[in-house]
Amino acid sequence: MSNCSVDSGASSPARKSWRSDAAQIVEELFRCTPPDSWDMLLDLRWHLLEGNDWDETLDVFLSCRQRLEAEQYLPFYRLRRLLAESLRLEAGRSQAHVASLREVLRRKHRSLADMKRTITREIFEHDLLEAGVDRIQLRVVER
Amino acid sequence: MSTHTATKQKSSAVIEGLQTLLADSYALMAQTHLAHWNVEGPNFFQLHTAFQKQYEELFGAIDEIAERLRALDVLANGGLKTLAKGSRIEELAVETTPAKDFVAHLIESHEIVLLDAHSLREAAGAADDLETQDLIIGRIQVHQKTLWMLKSFLKNL
């Protein structure tokens, strides 16, 4: 099931600004990363500039990060900061037990699925839901 | 015979630039101090010591910037709240933070101060205020050197 962010229809300057700032950071990575990572970076750049499914954007970001962060810590720190400032995790009634996106992005998740599994487990441990795992609808939305 | 003492007209751009640099340098010092206290991990000793040297250097520099304002017969902004309001540097949340994130945050903070210093260097030059310009050139050198060191730490070699 694809996740769409709540879109007001009009792009505010602030909204455009963080997305183009993030895309610019990705563009700078082309100069200092191996060519076999460029497809993935192009994908990330597109999602940041044009995408409207934040789950997918985060998934692509996590893949790029897993591959490139060791050599490019600072650019990925900047991207994490921008994403954490501009997006948030929404978990409905379980919201109280969900860590902030900033804290979650500090962890070394390989993918969005990996991230959601961990967060769901944390929610389960707090709420002691018996068969409620599939009732937790975790999604990434724009602030 | 009359004596003529040349006086330079105070440049509002220079004054404003000095106040901004003061506020951002103060915020950077506070963030560096926070990193010094709360850094953890295998590189604790080297980072703890390095951050101390950096905030001590900044403490001296802040005094020089404030006293330059006084030499220009302008009251220097001061006090935590006042300086925080005047700064663009974000504060890190007080929470367990990876050492590399402390370093990255300080890099971004130094970059903000460097932008302030570059603008102020130009403003001082335009106002023919070579004394302020001299002070700021010194600050630029220090921040560039600190940035080189912090960025070197993040390299994965």
Layout of strands and helices, then pairs:
The complex is a heterodimer of chains A (143) and B (157).
Chain A: H1 13-29, H2 38-50, H3 54-68, H4 73-86, E1 87-90, H5 101-106, H6 112-127, E2 139-142
Antiparallel strand pairs in A: 1-2
Helix pairs in contact in A: 1-2, 1-4, 2-3
Chain B: H1 12-38, H2 44-71, H3 80-85, H4 99-126, H5 130-154
Architecture overview:
The complex is a heterodimer of chains A (143) and B (157). By secondary structure, chain A is mainly alpha-helical. Chain A has one domain (13-142). Helix content of chain A is 57%, strand content 6%. Chain A has helices at residues 13-29, 38-50, 54-68, 73-86, 101-106, 112-127; strands at 87-90, 139-142. In chain A, strands 1-2 form a two-stranded antiparallel ribbon. In chain A, helix 1 (13-29) packs antiparallel against helix 4 and helix 2 (38-50) runs antiparallel to helix 3 (54-68). Chain A is globular, with a radius of gyration of 16 Å. With 157 residues, chain B is mainly alpha-helical. Chain B has one domain: Ferritin, core subunit, four-helix bundle (Ferritin), CATH 1.20.1260. Helix content of chain B is 73%, strand content 0%. Chain B is elongated and about 50 Å long. Chain B starts with 11 loop residues before the first helix and ends with a helix. Chain A binds chain B through residues 70-71, 73-74, 77-78, 81, 102-103, 106, and chain B through 93, 95, 98, 100-101, 104-105, 107-108, 151, 154, 156.
Features:
A: 143 residues; mainly alpha; disordered N terminus; B: 157 residues; Ferritin; 5 helices; elongated
